[in-house]
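From the shared-data thread, chain only:
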Amino acid sequence: MSRNSLPKNLKNDARGLALKAFRALRQGKTGQEALDGALAGSSLPQAEKNLASELFYGVCRNRIRLDYIANKFLAKPASLPAAMQDILNIALYSLLFQQKIPAYAAINSAVEQVSQSYGKLSAVANGFLRNAQRRKDEIENPAWYENGTFAGQAIYYSIPLLVAELWQSAYGLENAMNLLQRSNKRPWSGLLPGPAASKDVLLQLEKACDARLDNGFCFAPGCLPENTLALRNAGQVFSQAPASWHILHELGLDKWQEPVWDCCAGFGGKTLALLRAGVNVELCSDVSEKRLSALAKNCEKFGVRVPGIMLADAARNSTSWDGNIVLDVPCSGLGVLGRRPDIVADMAKFAELRKLQGSILAGMAAKLQPGRKLAYITCTLNPVENELAAREFLAENSNFSLCAEWQTPHEHLWLDGMYGVVLERKS
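Structure, as tokens:
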């Protein structure tokens, strides 16, 4: 059996689906791709699929902490078969975070799977998990990790030390601690009602939501209405991270009167939010034909006009344009680590992204006509990609002025970290 093989006699349950997703993740898939692939061919009830999603993302979100515990309790955990490490991580996650699952059930299930797949290694699994159970109070204490130092807090909240130190340097210790805690939490969900949403649906969402934000409804983890999928399929609502529509409001984009080109449009979340607000989005472009295809389908389902769609690279685009521009640029994603815990953070990647962002911003700004505006937006918390990038651009382009700037408050408990700036070409 190769190190990346699935365990023998894989059970057709939530843990089995999660193990399939972990295997795909190691093969280079993104977290969402890996999980979608595992769930796609499953006939399990939705409750089991939801549990598989929680196990997969829960382990990914807490990977650094789980690895730290394994290295404390096991001699050479990295030498174990990869799938066995996944089995142990799922069981350890259940012990620490899933109060509704009895400890004995999490342990016995993991030991049984290891026994069937890896024979005598079941004794290692049993000893490790029993030890973790006995010392649960200890490993739930943040002070246990590197004696409670800042580096230990980064481990406890499973945020790469590189990122934690970047936040501390840029925003100060208190804000960095806020960001560590927020980034380790399960993300909130958001629903924006469509133009055809009935009064009954609006009333239902009003009663069920945990918070209102602008024209949308926000839900704490696990609290989406049971009929959300039916509402989406009927075009009554569409799902979007609340911060993604809120930043449009904070920057004033929902009040724009001029034609808009949504560059780097992706699946069209911001396009839909702008169209819903009555903004004249005339053109959408992206480098992915798959994402653009989904954008068109989402507009049709949601009951809004489908803009012109163009497959194009924002960094190499010769199209002329007389209107405003939205740039939701590729970024390091440090503001959405709770939603995308599979993101890999390293300085080389940051440098490559910054170069690409600069190329996109400069190229699209050159197309902007006098009196028109450009919004530069990221979902990261990294000054080099955010406010410093904007200041650098303004310093090099005296014919532009800053109209608006906003970043998610560091102390906000659940809203994703977003940054945006609106630049205007002077008349």
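The CA atoms of residues 82 and 280 lie 50 Å apart.
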